[in-house]
Specification:
mainly beta; Thrombin, subunit H; 4 domains; 6-stranded antiparallel beta barrel; 6-stranded antiparallel β-barrel; about 35% strand; globular
């Protein structure tokens, strides 16, 4: 089957208001029992030592303890650190997932999960932990630029363990945990399909609402630098965990690709193309949100466009062409000029304007960066001190 690239779209992995009735309770076995069985079996994955870090009340669904595998181990370790998030305002509502940051209830999720009609004011939030405990939560801080938010719930929780997302590889085994379609504690598995992918979504702060796809006009867009995975991610997985084979967080699940541009297709299920915000970015943003309620972002101070590979209408983009630099901005101060084509940012390849925008906004305000450009046929490496995106608002 062929898919027209012009109809390829991305949508938030977010669940609409109605959720199915809970399924009949399954048999649960304590993590201690699972750990005893899988110890020595999970080569390169979760070991018995990893299980010892899990809380005493943590459980995992197991019907045959003799056939557990590394995915069982990852689930046993991480399930207590993933919650279901329910958000409502008036007659509107929805649900998503979240990842526990601290034992006292700081939880990381997506900005669009805690937004109703593009707004976070006046929303009521509840979280449900893996042990069934339900508690109210409040917003600590929201970062629409990277579609992340931190909420605070009451109670005692099990924090997730972070991995270094800069060390992952294409082909790594991964596990996604969340509440797709309202089905809590769902576990899916796959591989990392691509790294440093850039996708564009409608802004979670858009007045048109968090679920609107960006179609090239109208609502503001969010350019996200993400990991791509074929682990099944569906509406409701947003804000949930993408984990490595050791049960460590490598990403926050955020979006899925859909084929077509109709309203019905925007809520279609997984087609094996899902996206996750790298854990290193999630950690930096969440730390700032907890500390100050907001996050900072770099600003290059340049108007950029796609650098076409040829004059053909179907040309590939092979960089970000600087059309204009802002007087007194970071780009001008660093010596960047109109006509320069940016091909790398901090060592990562740049092939389009949206990739450069996403890469710059991932950095802290006033941080240092290295940019590689092509000028008059020659490659130049230029150091730049980024500005503050808040100054452009």
């Amino acid at each position: 089957m062929s898919i027209d690239n012009e109809n390829r779209q991305f949508t938030f992995a977010y669940q609409a208001p109605a959720a199915p009735a809970p399924a009949k309770a399954a048999k649960r076995v304590s993590v201690a029992v699972v750990a005893a069985i899988v110890s020595g079996v999970l080569a390169g994955g979760v070991s018995a030592a990893a299980f010892s870090m899990v809380g005493k009340n943590s459980t995992v669904v197991v019907n045959n303890v003799e056939s557990v595998n590394w995915v069982t181990g990852v689930a046993a370790k991480a399930l207590p650190s993933v919650v279901t998030v329910s958000v409502g305002s008036g007659t509107s509502g929805g649900s998503g997932s979240g990842v526990v940051l601290t034992a006292d209830g700081m939880i990381l999720t997506n900005a669009h999960v805690v937004s109703i009609d593009g707004k976070t004011s006046g929303v009521s939030i509840e979280v449900k932990a893996s042990d069934g405990t339900v508690s109210k939560a409040k917003i600590v801080g929201v970062d629409p630029t990277n579609d992340l938010a931190v909420i605070k719930a009451s109670g005692v929780f099990t924090p997730i363990e972070f991995a270094d997302s800069s060390m992952v590889n294409v082909g790594d085994n991964v596990v996604a945990i969340g509440a797709p379609l309202g089905l809590e504690e769902s576990v899916t598995t796959g591989i990392l399909s691509a790294l440093n992918r850039t996708i564009q979504l409608a802004s979670s702060a858009s007045p048109d609402g968090a679920l609107q796809l960006w179609n090239g006009s109208g609502a503001p867009q969010v350019s996200l630098r993400v990991l791509q995975t074929d682990a099944a991610i569906n509406p409701g997985n947003s804000g949930g965990a993408l984990l490595n084979s050791k049960g460590q967080l490598i990403g926050i699940n955020v979006a899925i690709a859909t084929a077509g541009n109709t309203a019905s297709s925007s809520q279609s299920g997984s087609i094996g193309v899902g996206f996750s915000i790298p854990s290193n970015i999630a950690k930096r943003i969440s730390d700032e949100l907890i500390k100050s309620g907001s996050a900072s972002h770099g600003l290059l101070g340049a108007l950029v466009s796609n650098a076409a590979s040829s004059t053909s209408a179907a040309a590939f983009s092979n960089g970000a062409k600087i059309e204009k630099v802002t007087p007194g901005g970071a780009a001008e101060k660093a010596g960047l000029k109109a006509g320069d084509v940016v091909i790398a940012f901090n060592g990562e390849k740049i092939t389009s304007a949206s990739e450069l925008t996403a890469a710059v906004r991932l950095e802290r305000a006033n941080s240092n960066a290295t940019i590689t450009v092509v000028r008059a046929g020659k490659e130049l490496t230029i150091k730049v001190r980024l500005g503050d995106a808040a100054d452009a608002n």
